[in-house]
Fold this protein.
Amino acid sequence: MRVSIDTDALAFGFPILLHGLVNTILVCCAATFIGFAAGIPVALARLSRWSMMRLPVVAFVELMRDTPFLVQAFIIYFGLAELGIRLDATVAGVLALSLYATANFSESIRGAILSVPKGQFEAARALGIRYFSLIGRIILPQSLGYLVPALTNQIIGIIKDSAALSVITTPEMSMAAQVVVGESFRPVETYAMVAVLYWALTTTVVTLMRQVERAPRRIWRSGERAGVDHRLPIEVSE
């Protein structure tokens, strides 16, 4: 059996898919930044002892994690339009992906915080360190080692889930693939290129996150050679 590859279809489709790849990167970067920034207070709220703060956050996280992302994208794009709030497809896509990312990032952040030994919390409280100083200067820096691998998986998940945004006409790579197939009638070559581009994107993310994960170790080792004390300063409140 002989398999033929239409090089004309590849030449025609590649620039369109490359433009879609750029849009995918922009959408995923925006969703990752917003999701991570929002995920920190969500994670802290879920760890709160106050039920009035914790329960709404638990409901939000469970709702976003336990329902298909495709359904969430439909509800945001079409549901808000029914309420008179008409969003551009790209804006709706970023919003849907950001909310989904917030829920997932918050769980990764919460798990990383809980991985820090409880003795750190107890020692800080005994010294009278304020809560936000405790979290920002002691707990979060120590949780990075637990957090980076989980964040890598979450970011890769965001990239993969972004393909579902084509159903609301967000101009990302899957939408570009539909355009190419509609013009060239060559789905095999088109989706083969899509697979290669997604693979290249996720491989790049994994490589970059590995560098981020190794950075603290390199800083620590270079500091030890230079005789730098890496211990965190502790401020005792009066």
User: Anything to note?
Assistant: Residues 7-225 form a domain with the MetI-like fold fold (CATH 1.10.3720.10).
